[in-house]
Amino acid sequence: MQQVHISKMTGKLDGFKAISTNTVTNAFCIKMNSQGDSICRLCYSHGMLKSYRKNMQPALQRNSDLLSARLLDQSELPTLLDAFLRINAHGELINATHLENICRIAEHNPHCNVALWTKRKDLINKMFKTRTKPANLILIFSNPKIGKILDTVPNHFDKVFNNVAFEDHQDRQNCTGQQCKSCLACYKFGGTDIIVEAVKLNGRSVKKKG
Questions:
Q1: Could you state, in order of their start, the residue ranges of all structural domains in the chain?
Q2: 152-178 confidence digits (pLDDT tens)
Q3: CA distance 56 to 5
Q4: Whole-prediction pTM value?
Q5: Which end of the chain has fewer surrounding CB within 10 Å, N or C?
Q6: Does residue 154 contact residue 122 with C-beta atoms inside 8 Å?
């Protein structure tokens, strides 16, 4: 029986685990990666998975196929031993089946805060018009527009993650490179709901030229 692959994170995300999918085969990601006004054009995942982390693609693709093709049986839902789980360290929601499987994983692990980053408001709105959002699922809207801080949390979401140029809105930048386990703003309900980070490329802040 094929199992959901859970990745052990490093760097800023050291201490966390994640359920991710394959960015480079996701039609939504491919489209967004080609749009010049989107943060997706600077996508770290596209660059990594096409080069020095190419060996990750098979495991992530298995997740893409497994999570988006059909609803998982109860016996296939992973049991988590952690207090927090990240969804989409790589990749994005593929379809409604993918989202429903994430909901089922969250409900199967009520002790674990499951944080899902997504730009797919279309899937979120359609799903949660007819389904109750799991109490431990934190939905974070990943704002695709660089430099345009979204101060209003969209319907059904809990938080917004914004990106700005390093030199801009420095007084509002509250995601400043610390390890996530030392902050947990994205992984706990309440507290800071509007998160702002300087744009990064290969882990480093992107500064304006000139």
A1: 7-205
A2: 999 999 999 999 998 988 899 999 877
A3: 11
A4: 0.92
A5: C
A6: no
